[in-house]
Amino acid sequence: MFILAGSVYDSEQNSILKNRVIHVEGRKISNIGNNIKIPENAKIIDLSDYTVLPGFIDAHTHVLFDQEPQDDFAEHSISTLVLENQALRTLRGYRRAKSYLDVGITSIKDLGNSGQFLDVALRDAINEGTIEGPRIFAAGKIMSGFGGQIYGVQSGYEEIVDLEYRIINSPYDAVNAVREHVNQKVNVIKICADNLPNNTRLTRGEMQKITETAHDYGLTVTAHSISNRSAWDAIKAGVDGIEHGFFLADSTLKLMAEKNVFLVPTENSRSYMDRYYKISGSNPDDLKWIEGYMSNMKERLMNAIEMGVTIVAGSDNYTDIGVSRGISSQDMFRTYYESGMKPLNILQSATYLSAKSLKKENEIGILIPGAFADIIAIKGDIEKDFIGSVEKVVFVMKDGKVYMDSTF
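Above: the chain's sequence. Below: its structure in token form.
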């Protein structure tokens, strides 16, 4: 199979190339260039009027969890664990996961809130071809201090939290937790450096044992962090990435750059925020804080970029706002663009840099010989109309199989 590409995004060099041919054999890219001879009677896909890119990667998802804007997180979490059949939960997760392909997201990093390793099961079902969906890098149960992120659980009922989180009790227990996850064949380790609004958090010693053990098994560790202190401790403990990092100080960003720790910002655009709070029934007079919040997040992101921190694209959108999970995930592009990131840099964060954070930069997020044939095409001018073009995905291929083609 040969793909004729009018323009190609080189994610490693972060540049646009003109007039390339991509030769796909089976699941992988065999060759790419501008002097490839196409045999007679070969199957040709003509994308000469479009920009061709590696499939996007959303590096922060929760496909096994969903809530309404008006729902309380803790109450809904308990309801999901106690009242929802886990098979039904997995099937609902499958529907959400599949929707990522519709918008050109061919890989996701799924970071917990997935019950008893349901994300691993979903990944395996997709990999074996039983169901269709994006390539999943599964974290399994989030490792956390006492209480996890489910706040307000009364004494005597903490076992409910254990259904969703792996509670760490000591540095020694942290080693065992990683071993358990390795046996469950996770792709990445996710920890809660803090678990606000619960008051507990992992100690630096516990996080250090997690990262040391995970690295021994070839796994990366990424840390949920809201407070600056928890991020600092996690970085000192050796984690590979920080998720959210809403309140990172410049000194912490500097440390991240020095230690090559990536950041996954998970803010939302203003239009998303307006839609969310409208659905939730919030009083507009109570939302005056949003402008200041968004200004602070923009400043944090720009400071991180200026200091040389690697930015990896992730949405963290698990709330039902009336669109598919895939469409909701697209908001990360708008968010970064409105915050001041340049279009090609956003693309690189959602492809090559995301793949590199997973140690998969030669397999996904890139169009080179030997990489998986995860290939998409978009309509429009990326640099002149970034949002308009990145949301107009017209072609999606994953593993050499075409899932969507609206070019005709």
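The mean pLDDT is 96.
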